[in-house]
Amino acid sequence: MKTTRIIFWIATTLIFLFEGVMPALTSQTQMAVDGIRHLGYPDYFGPMITAFKVAGALALILPKFPARLKEWAYAGFVFDFFCASISVTVVDGFGFGSIFPLIVLAVLMVSYVSYHKLLAADQRHAY
After folding, report:
1. Which of 20, 58, 87, 118 has a CA that sits 20 to 30 A from residue 71's CA?
2. Residue 122 confidence (pLDDT) above 90
């Protein structure tokens, strides 16, 4: 269980940094605004997606957050990463920008699987 816990915290911290901290700090920069426009999204999309990313990242990193809301956060990030990959591919063609969200998705899946292993272990010890 110790190894699973370490894997969970490493993967979840990476997601928290990529999807919570970075968007919160950079979403209003000109580069971010230009990036959203380049993909064809309206200006309100950037702040909206940033709010959802920060909320989801907090849901994943805070230990006492309800499990059902964590599941919604995981699901939201899956949609986010797939849609990001598709958006970049459609606008710019296939390349690293198309692959990177899928790499982060793999990190998210590591977090998700280890989260469920820890949840199952905690439930076994509760009885």
Report:
1. 87
2. no
Kindly report, residue by residue over 109-121, the tens digit of the pLDDT.
999 999 999 998 8
- Is residue 87 within 8 A of residue 100, CB to CB? The reply is no
Sign of CA dihedral 80, 107, 18, 123: positive
Report residue 94: phi and psi, to 5°.
-75, 130
Provide φ and ψ at 29, rounded to 5°.
Answer: -70, 155
Could you tell me the residue range of the domain that residue 62 belongs to? Answer: 2-126
Residue 89 amino acid letter: T
Structure pTM? 0.90
Other C-beta atoms lying within 10 Å of the C-beta of residue 102: 12
Report the domain count for the chain: 1
Under 8 Å between Cβ of 80 and 49: yes
3-state secondary structure of 127: coil
* Residue 25 burial class via C-beta count within 10 angstroms: exposed 0-12, middle 13-18, buried 19 and up: exposed
